[in-house]
């Protein structure tokens, strides 16, 4: 099967079906590469908004046939939408970006659909906000984009989806559906459940207690702000794999609980073995955390944090970044929070370890206030 090609890294016209966060971000990324993008969404407002934001043109009956159709709809309708688009565009490759993969393929096979031109995919990039307005052209930049071949898929279709992922800025990774679903259960779906469960414990705290929140709880609960409707569908769609990983977490929590209960109940807090259980849990966490790849999929890197107190005034952050640039240092990541009751912001600059000392000296010389 030949895939029509034009500008934008050899990619022909792309039709994006579902113009929320992911569909709009994809349209923006592809448009920046010169790819022709058309947009479709059952919500006329969502579609027109994506168009207004620059993600592509509204789909019309006169459009040239798309080379690739990307279904970026909620997971529970993806199978039906893919089937409809395979029928409507008999020469196009059809992919989807749903966060679960076996369920979509299973739905298509159960419906007797010819899946030769269907190859699922999943960009491992997103935000805790939904809708076109949250779309960003650089969302997929350097992030893994899983391409999911299956036993019936045409190799040319697999290649077309790989080209699409690359054109959007992603780093394509090929993986069968079941392997993908097991992996994302551990790296995405259970973390979402854990973040939501931890954040739920804050709901009824007093204002004074929640006011003590620091960066740790913010880091652990960031994705608890995600869309409940979308995530219910994701968890339903990957129930088996999520249940396996969550079961392991449940067992580990049980062991920690037993250790803590032992310490609480033992009048002398002797509780033999309890301390070893807690230390092992924390050390295992260190080991797991160290396995997370660095920015853009590079090997894990431990950055050094340089913490700067900045006056809460317009332009201060821009001045700080400019000064760091003038010191010749690349900022690998940043974190920010406002100091409670003070008109300053606390900015953590994460830099390569060898750059930290010269940067501290340079910033101090430029009058910045550093803190531990
Ligand atoms: N939100 C995230 O961080 C990520 C989401 N995904 C996947 O991307 C897909 C879209 O998610 P978001 O963009 O976050 O959701 P969203 O809620 O921002 O957008 C979904 C869009 O799909 C449209 N839609 C609803 N029913 C439809 C149908 N039958 N046909 C076509 N469009 C329909 C909605 O009107 C809406 O504009 C989901 O399958 C999700 O699993 C993948 C990676 C990350
Ligand atoms: O916000 C984050 O850190 C994410 O990892 C977002 C995300 C959400 C859903 C996906 O299917 C993939 C990525």
UniProtKB/TrEMBL annotation:
<dbReference type="InterPro" id="IPR003099">
    <property type="entry name" value="Prephen_DH"/>
</dbReference>
<dbReference type="GO" id="GO:0008977">
    <property type="term" value="F:prephenate dehydrogenase (NAD+) activity"/>
</dbReference>
<feature type="domain" description="Prephenate/arogenate dehydrogenase">
    <location>
        <begin position="12"/>
        <end position="294"/>
    </location>
</feature>
<dbReference type="InterPro" id="IPR045865">
    <property type="entry name" value="ACT-like_dom_sf"/>
</dbReference>
<dbReference type="InterPro" id="IPR050812">
    <property type="entry name" value="Preph/Arog_dehydrog"/>
</dbReference>
<dbReference type="Pfam" id="PF20463">
    <property type="entry name" value="PDH_C"/>
</dbReference>
<comment type="pathway">
    <text>Amino-acid biosynthesis; L-tyrosine biosynthesis; (4-hydroxyphenyl)pyruvate from prephenate (NAD(+) route): step 1/1.</text>
</comment>
<dbReference type="InterPro" id="IPR046825">
    <property type="entry name" value="PDH_C"/>
</dbReference>
<keyword id="KW-0057">Aromatic amino acid biosynthesis</keyword>
<dbReference type="GO" id="GO:0004665">
    <property type="term" value="F:prephenate dehydrogenase (NADP+) activity"/>
</dbReference>
<keyword id="KW-0028">Amino-acid biosynthesis</keyword>
<dbReference type="Pfam" id="PF02153">
    <property type="entry name" value="PDH_N"/>
</dbReference>
<protein>
    <recommendedName>
        <fullName>Prephenate dehydrogenase</fullName>
        <ecNumber>1.3.1.12</ecNumber>
    </recommendedName>
</protein>
<comment type="similarity">
    <text>Belongs to the prephenate/arogenate dehydrogenase family.</text>
</comment>
<keyword id="KW-0520">NAD</keyword>
<dbReference type="InterPro" id="IPR046826">
    <property type="entry name" value="PDH_N"/>
</dbReference>
<dbReference type="InterPro" id="IPR002912">
    <property type="entry name" value="ACT_dom"/>
</dbReference>
<feature type="domain" description="ACT">
    <location>
        <begin position="305"/>
        <end position="372"/>
    </location>
</feature>
<keyword id="KW-0560">Oxidoreductase</keyword>
<keyword id="KW-0827">Tyrosine biosynthesis</keyword>
<dbReference type="InterPro" id="IPR008927">
    <property type="entry name" value="6-PGluconate_DH-like_C_sf"/>
</dbReference>
<dbReference type="GO" id="GO:0070403">
    <property type="term" value="F:NAD+ binding"/>
</dbReference>
<dbReference type="GO" id="GO:0006571">
    <property type="term" value="P:tyrosine biosynthetic process"/>
</dbReference>
<dbReference type="InterPro" id="IPR036291">
    <property type="entry name" value="NAD(P)-bd_dom_sf"/>
</dbReference>
């Amino acid at each position: 099967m030949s895939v029509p090609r034009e500008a934008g890294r050899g990619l022909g016209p792309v039709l994006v079906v579902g113009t929320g966060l992911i569909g709009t971000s994809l349209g923006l990324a592809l448009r920046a590469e010169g790819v022709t993008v058309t947009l479709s969404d059952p919500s006329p407002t969502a579609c027109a908004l994506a168009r207004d934001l620059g993600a592509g043109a509204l789909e019309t009956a006169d459009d040239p046939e798309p080379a690739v159709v990307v279904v970026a709809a909620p997971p529970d309708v993806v199978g039906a939408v893919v089937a409809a688009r395979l029928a409507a565009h008999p020469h196009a490759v059809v992919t989807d970006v749903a966060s679960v993969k076996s369920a979509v393929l299973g739905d298509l096979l159960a419906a007797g659909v010819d899946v030769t031109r269907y190859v699922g995919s999943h960009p491992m990039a997103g935000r805790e906000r939904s809708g076109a307005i949250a779309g960003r052209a650089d969302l997929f930049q350097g992030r893994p984009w899983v391409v999911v071949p299956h036993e019936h898929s045409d190799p040319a279709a697999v290649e077309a989806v790989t080209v699409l992922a690359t054109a959007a800025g992603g780093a394509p990774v090929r993986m069968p559906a079941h392997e993908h679903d097991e992996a994302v259960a551990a790296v995405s779906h259970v973390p979402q459940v854990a973040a939501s469960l931890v954040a739920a414990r804050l709901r009824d705290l007093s204002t004074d207690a929640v006011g003590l929140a620091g960066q740790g709880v913010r880091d652990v609960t960031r994705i608890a702000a995600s869309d409940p409707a979308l995530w219910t569908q994701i968890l339903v769609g990957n129930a088996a794999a999520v249940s396996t990983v969550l079961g392991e977490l449940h067992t580990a929590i049980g062991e920690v609980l037993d250790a803590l209960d032992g310490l609480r109940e033992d009048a002398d807090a002797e509780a033999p073995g309890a301390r070893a259980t807690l230390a092992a849990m924390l050390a295992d966490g260190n080991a797991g955390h160290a396995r997370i790849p660095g920015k853009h999929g590079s090997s894990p890197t431990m950055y050094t944090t340089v913490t700067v107190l900045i006056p809460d005034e317009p332009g201060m952050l821009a001045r700080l970044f400019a000064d760091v640039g003038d010191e010749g240092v690349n900022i690998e990541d940043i974190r920010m929070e406002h100091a409670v009751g003070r008109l300053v912001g606390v900015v953590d600059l994460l830099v390569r370890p060898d750059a930290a000392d010269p940067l501290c000296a340079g910033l101090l010389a430029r009058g910045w206030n550093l803190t531990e």
